[in-house]
Amino acid sequence: MNKKLASIDIGLKRIGCAICLASDIVTPQDAILRKNRNQAARDTDAFLKEWDIDTLIVGSPASNEEMQRRIKHFVSLLDFDGEICFVNEDMSSIEAEDSMKGLIKYKRDGRVDSLAAKIILERYLVASKKEG
Predict the structure, then answer these.
(1) Could you tell me the CATH number of the domain that includes residue 107?
(2) How far is the C-alpha of 35 from the C-alpha of 79, rounded, in Å?
(3) Residue 61, burial from CB neighbour count under 10 angstroms (0-12, 13-18, 19+)
């Protein structure tokens, strides 16, 4: 049985989202706009339930302890009983921005955030293949 995976890239204004429901195909989803922590946690829970997610991959910066603490706190607000894995997200947003250059006019609509979540999930898949 394939596990259904989701990843989130938690930012202060938006939460990028991506899913992997079968094999290694990762699809970015609409980003969640953050008004406040509780609303963002509820919206994230709804996203996870909608896709029936088994494992949540959370991007966490290796070098920023304050953001790590904030991200762990946000994850603690989620009503999610599946597996949660933290993955180094360093450079994922820059990689996402670079991949979009020239394709679409850059807007703060969450697409970069969700592409970053896609990159984080792809990193997790590559790492778990090496381990397995």
Answers:
(1) 3.30.420.140
(2) 18
(3) middle
Compute the distance between CA of residue 7 and CA of residue 59 in angstroms, rounded to an integer.
7
Report pLDDT digits (tens) over 84-108. Answer: 999 988 777 777 777 766 655 555 6
What pLDDT, on a 0 to 100 scale, did the predictor assign at position 103? 56
Instruction: Provide the b/e sequence for 35-56 (b: ≥16 CB within 10 Å).
Output: eeeeebbebbeebbeebebebb
Query: What CA–CA distance (Å, rounded) separates 43 from 109?
Result: 16
Which residue segment(s) compose the domain that 33 sits in?
5-131
Assigned token pair, 117? 């979540």
Residue 5: strand pairing partners? 20, 55
pLDDT of residue 90: 76
Instruction: Spell 63-88 as b/e; 16+ CB within 10 A means b.
Output: eeeebeeebeebbeebebeeeeebbe
Can you list the alpha helix ranges (DSSP code H) found in the chain? Answer: 37-50, 65-77, 92-100, 111-131
The answer to pTM > 0.90 is no
Q: Name the token pair of 121.
A: 């999930």
**Domains held by the chain: number:** 1
